[in-house]
Write a structure and sequence with these properties.
By secondary structure, this protein is mainly alpha-helical. It has four helices and no strands. The longest helix is centred in the middle third of the chain and has 37 residues. The N and C termini lie far apart (64 Å). The model has no long low-confidence stretch (mean pLDDT 85).
Length: 124
């Protein structure tokens, strides 16, 4: 069980280190256009959010349940709530990208509007 904790800590430590280096290099980039610089920031924020979602919905609940049992702490019904969180992860992962990226959000709104207007149109 400690091995699983080590893997989780190491993987997020590497992600934080690489994210910090990416932040540093995007901030210092001066040979790219302003528009490309803004795009890089948007993508960086989206990737950070996509890293945060599994942390909240998968890693933390898993670590709490496994370590609580390992240390003999009562889990009560928290494990049932964490299963719901884990099952919500794929949906929230998609929602985060749709909310953060304007192109996806616009495409979704246009697609839904077209579907709605076609449904209201009388059929011949």
């Amino acid at each position: 069980m400690i091995g699983v904790d080590i893997v989780m800590v190491v993987s997020f430590s590497v992600a934080i280190a690489l994210g910090a280096r990416t932040f540093y290099h995007i901030r210092r980039a001066d040979t790219i256009s302003t528009q490309f610089h803004i795009l890089q920031w948007k993508l960086f924020v989206a990737v950070c959010a996509q890293t945060f979602v599994p942390l909240v919905f998968v890693y933390i609940p898993y670590a709490v349940v496994i370590n609580a049992a390992f240390f003999g702490l009562p889990v009560l019904s928290v494990d049932d709530a964490f299963m719901v969180l884990t099952s919500c992860f794929p949906a929230w992962d998609a929602v985060v990208i749709i909310l953060l990226m304007a192109d996806y959000r616009t495409a979704l709104i246009v697609e839904e509007y077209q579907t709605f207007t076609e449904a209201k149109r009388p059929r011949k």
